[in-house]
Design brief:
heterodimer; A: alpha/beta; TIM Barrel; eight-stranded parallel sheet; about 45% helix; globular; B: alpha/beta; Aldehyde Dehydrogenase, Chain A, domain 1; Aldehyde Dehydrogenase, Chain A, domain 2; 2 domains; seven-stranded mixed sheet; 15 helices; about 35% helix
Chain lengths: ~300, ~500
């Protein structure tokens, strides 16, 4: 699954980055939201959404106990419903990577760890790299880094680029997801530019948000990033994944994201290998919809475990 | 960290393509038809009643998506047209012209509200009779229909403010002939300003799409509109000619082909009858290198594939600046692969059925012409239903000004693409057409938008968008695209004497 760039990353020609028109993006998103997904098509999408989930807990109060419970949930989403997929990854802070790694042994579920002075990224390069190295040494399969938004907004694109490239190197075999924190980048043009920077610097995934800043993921922002991924693929042939995170709490919204993914990037990306939902609340709503499709009735939320 | 010299990799796109053949597909999501009511046979709507035609003739209207008959409608002859005009004249003289303007407005508001209440029924029938996707009839056509009646309802008692210093007076009886591409919307564009200004109407809907106009007659009855204020006569070209040639018509409003528009102008020569004509188009949609390309691609799709390309203001000539031409065409082809063509009543359908066998033949003939002319043809690989009239979205690259597919209106989902280098070149080419209905400009630079819009000779020009309509915005053509304006304050003028 690893796709380490073998050659040194090349700083992209940012003057070639396509502009983004916000009104047009809104209109396109509205079209995705109007697709009618019913019956077997809905069940397929719901199962896919579960398998793409990065079940996340990123709290100051997180403990080994909490993380173990979450890992169990990730393996056994709803045992009353047979043959459900497991989630793609469990996402935790570096200090809890080892716990998660043990709890998930043999499950096929990855451990993702945030790093690089998450969520603000306001620290030295040295601390960020140490944070990354620690998470990797604890056993993280995936590193979710944050970019330095302050540097980006000052126009220090080379700084941001070099930092991502350095973290990528520190990741070793671990997959690198680069969080743009789109809620702090202000314009869709900035988001597109940051996406291009991150991909050229070696990102395996680009990710919208930490979940700590509002707005977090939106369909508009995700579409712009998907289109950047598409252009990068056409230019280089390298597939980069996408992870919207934060604010995706309902099955209906998750399906709309999948419609957007399907009609923008197609088959290659329609898998947990290249698309993830970063979410803490989404799973139970998806499970409830799945059960409803089978039984015809909505169950009480108390039938679904809250971990 | 050292960086490599800044060499841009050459695009090698042939080996890479986005694969949209996914395991996950959308299940059918058909809009139900159980709630609609259609009679087996419709007469002519004259003087507030459905009456049998004196001609004794009827013809079938079919669903172009499955070729099944939906209903029979009367074919009005000369005597029927005369009867309708006389009813309109009588209603004008005895009722409508004597009503206070505020009362006229109330009727229009009532009509608008009833259309909103019955929006679902109208959308479904519009899609069944005309072939357009329910997504469009539901989200575009019918809401705009209601919006037009609301808009002109507001003007009814404010005409003196619209034209300060003048005394606006109605003309009398308006004969209105509308096309099959937006049957109900064109009826609203014609009827709403005519009634708001105090005129009465004889409307002739298109031969292939009469049903929503006849359903509109039910709305007029439910709204208690006085009998004879709107009369609806169905039929083909001969019925239209009978209406235009009637000596007691004060005004002709026509939307349709330039060829028929010319015939109407000939028929009206030497008469006092006023007229507005909204005719064909071959709009230039112009993409500059500094445009937001992904959104521009959406605009191209909306411009040419909206309503199967059956749009007089369709962006049927695409001009792309050479520096981005390859990228834009590649993105466009990819986007076209995701368009869903099929059952107009399915909520996921993007492109519905071609309106008639005749129109499909015409489109296919133009595709052959384009290929014979040597332009490069591309058509999406989507599956088409076995029954009905269908045309997968298509485009021609390497088209040039001398190609017929660039010069003539195809009125189908077929785009002709040309490239350009400079602003001067694209302006010259864009204006080098007998038409001038609409145009589109895509650039991130505001000054360029103003430069372009002031020099393009077309009635409507969209900047960084396409196919947007609003009742407050006037619509109409330069050159052979038409005479007069519909919509907005300007749309009142063709129905008034301004003394």
């Amino acid at each position: 699954m690893s796709s380490r760039t073998e050659t040194m990353p090349v700083f992209p020609d940012l003057s070639r980055v396509s502009r983004v028109d916000e009104v047009g993006v809104e209109e396109r998103v509205a079209r995705f939201q109007k697709r009618s997904i019913k019956k077997e098509s809905k069940v397929h999408a719901l199962r896919l959404a579960l398998s793409m989930m990065d079940l996340t807990t990123l709290e100051g109060q997180d403990t080994a106990g909490k993380v173990r419970q979450l890992c169990y949930k990730g393996r056994h989403l709803h045992d009353a419903y047979p043959d459900l997929p497991h989630v793609a990854a469990i996402c935790v802070y570096p200090s809890l990577v080892r716990v998660a790694k043990q709890a998930l042994a043999g499950s096929g579920i990855n451990v993702a760890s945030v790093a690089t002075a998450f969520p603000s990224g306001q620290s030295s390069r040295k601390v960020k790299l140490a944070d990354t190295t620690f998470a990797v040494s604890e056993g993280a399969d995936e590193i979710d880094m944050v970019i330095s938004r302050g540097e980006f907004l000052q126009g220090e694109y080379a700084y941001v680029f070099d930092e991502i490239a350095a973290v990528k190197e520190a990741c070793n075999e671990a997959h690198l997801k680069v969080i743009l924190e789109t809620g702090e980048l202000s314009t869709l043009d900035n988001i597109r530019r940051a996406s291009v920077l991150a991909m050229h610097a070696g990102a395996d995934f680009i990710k919208t948000s930490t979940g700590k800043v509002q707005p977090a993921a939106t369909m508009q922002v995700t579409l712009v990033m998907l289109q950047a991924i598409r252009d990068y693929y056409m230019e280089t042939g390298r597939v980069v994944g996408m992870k919207p995170a934060g604010g995706i709490a309902t099955a209906k919204l998750a399906i709309q994201y999948l419609v957007m993914l399907r009609e923008t990037l197609g088959k290659t990306w329609l898998t947990p290998t290249w698309f993830r939902f970063g979410a803490s609340r989404l799973a139970n709503d998806v499970l409830m919809q799945l059960v409803k499709e089978r039984s015809g009735a909505y169950q009480s939320l108390d039938y679904f475990s809250k971990d | 960290m050292k960086r490599k010299p800044n060499a841009r990799p050459r695009r090698k796109t042939a080996a890479r393509a986005i694969d949209f053949q996914t395991d996950w597909t959308y299940a059918p999501a058909p809009e139900s038809t159980g709630h609609i009511q259609l009679r087996e046979r419709y007469g002519l709507f004259i003087n507030g009643q459905f009456v049998n035609p004196k001609s004794g003739k009827y013809f079938a209207t079919t669903n172009p998506a499955n070729e099944k008959k939906l209903a029979e409608v009367a074919e009005a002859g000369i005597a029927d047209a005369d009867r309708a005009v006389r009813a309109a004249r009588q209603a004008y003289e005895t009722v409508w012209s004597r009503l206070s303007a505020a009362e006229r407005g109330k009727y229009l508001y009532r009509i608008a509200r009833i259309i909103q209440e019955r929006a679902r029924e109208f959308s479904v029938i519009e899609s069944m009779d005309g072939g357009k996707a329910i997504r469009e009839s539901r989200d575009v056509d019918v809401p705009l229909v209601a919006a037009h009646f609301f808009y002109y309802a507001g003007w009814a008692d404010k005409l003196a403010y619209a034209f300060p210093g003048k005394t606006p007076k109605p003309l009398g009886v308006a004969g209105q002939i509308i096309p099959w591409n937006f049957p109900l919307l064109m009826a609203a564009w014609k009827i709403a300003p005519a009634l708001a200004t105090g005129n009465t109407v004889v409307l002739k809907p298109a031969e292939t799409t009469p049903l929503t106009a006849l359903k509109l007659a039910e709305v007029f009855r439910d709204a208690d509109l006085p009998p004879g204020v709107v009369n609806i006569i169905t039929g083909g070209g001969a019925t239209g000619a009978a209406l235009v040639n009637h000596p007691d018509i004060d005004k002709v409003a026509f939307t349709g082909s330039t060829d028929v528009g010319k015939l109407i102008l000939k028929a009206l020569a030497g008469r006092k009858t006023k007229y507005t004509l909204e005719l064909g188009g071959k709009a230039a949609n112009i993409i500059f290198e500094d445009a937001a390309l992904d959104q521009a691609v959406e605009g191209i799709v909306n411009g040419i594939f909206f309503n199967q390309g059956h749009v007089c203001c369709a962006g049927s000539r695409l001009f792309v600046q050479e520096s981005v031409a390859d990228v834009v065409v590649e993105k466009l082809k990819e986007r076209m692969e995701t368009l869903i063509v099929g059952d107009p009543l399915d909520k996921n359908t993007d492109i519905g059925a071609i309106n008639s066998r005749m129109q499909l033949d015409k489109i296919q003939a133009y595709i052959k012409i384009g290929r014979d002319e040597g332009a490069d043809f591309y058509q999406t690989s989507c599956k088409l239903p076995a029954k009905g009239y269908w045309c997968a979205p298509a485009l021609f690259t390497n088209a040039s000004q001398s190609h017929r597919i660039v010069q003539e209106e195809i009125f189908g989902p077929v785009l002709a693409i040309q490239t350009f280098r400079t602003i001067e070149e694209v302006l010259e080419k864009a204006n080098n057409t007998p038409y001038g209905l609409s145009g589109g400009v895509w650039t991130d630079k505001g000054a360029k938008i103003f430069k372009m819009t002031s020099k393009l000779r077309a009635g409507v020009i969209w900047a960084n968008t396409f196919s947007k309509f609003d009742p407050g915005s006037p619509f109409g053509g330069y050159k052979e695209s038409g005479v007069g304006r519909e919509g907005g304050l300007q749309g009142l003028m063709p129905y008034l004497q301004l003394a």
